[in-house]
């Protein structure tokens, strides 16, 4: 069964995430992918990858992904956060980071660790 990863990016980081998804397309294609709404739409449109879309982040998408973590249905999250812009749903963002810590699920919040997480999860295939 493929591992499952969530992809999320705040608006200022969406271009970076799309570029990452293109650069690591062959790796990411080995995973089952989910994403928040707008991020998922862009990945579906601009890469060869297929992701299952949740709600947009501000409308509850981060919480939906947090629920996947709580149900032990996610192996990792790439979440390129914008550290320079206040988000209306900041409590949801913090809750997602927290639930990942509770369940010991790797979550990367910048490109450097995004590469580490997907490389690690890929290497861990049995
Ligand atoms: O806001 C987000 C994460 O907190 C991302 O949501 P979208 O992918 O819908 O823009």
UniProtKB/TrEMBL annotation:
Enzyme Commission code(s) on record: 4.2.3.3
Active site: 62 (proton donor/acceptor)
GO cellular component terms, A-Z: cytosol
The organism's place on the tree of life at top rank: Bacteria
Molecular functions (GO terms): methylglyoxal synthase activity
Record-annotated MGS-like domain positions: 1-126
Reactions catalysed, as given in the entry: dihydroxyacetone phosphate = methylglyoxal + phosphate
Alphabetical list of PANTHER family matching this protein: METHYLGLYOXAL SYNTHASE
Protein family membership: Belongs to the methylglyoxal synthase family.
Known function: Catalyzes the formation of methylglyoxal from dihydroxyacetone phosphate.
Protein name: Methylglyoxal synthase
């Amino acid at each position: 069964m493929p591992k499952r990863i969530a992809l999320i990016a705040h608006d200022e980081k969406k271009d970076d995430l799309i570029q990452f998804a293109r650069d690591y397309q062959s790796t990411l294609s080995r995973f089952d992918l989910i994403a928040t709404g707008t991020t998922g739409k862009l990945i579906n449109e601009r890469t060869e990858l297929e992701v299952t879309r949740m709600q947009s982040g501000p409308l509850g998408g981060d919480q939906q992904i947090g629920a996947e973590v709580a149900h032990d249905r996610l192996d990792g999250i790439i979440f390129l956060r914008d550290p320079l812009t206040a988000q209306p749903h900041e409590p949801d963002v913090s809750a997602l980071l927290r639930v990942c810590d509770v369940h010991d699920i790797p979550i990367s919040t910048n490109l450097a660790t995004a590469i580490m997480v997907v490389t690690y999860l890929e290497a861990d295939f049995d």
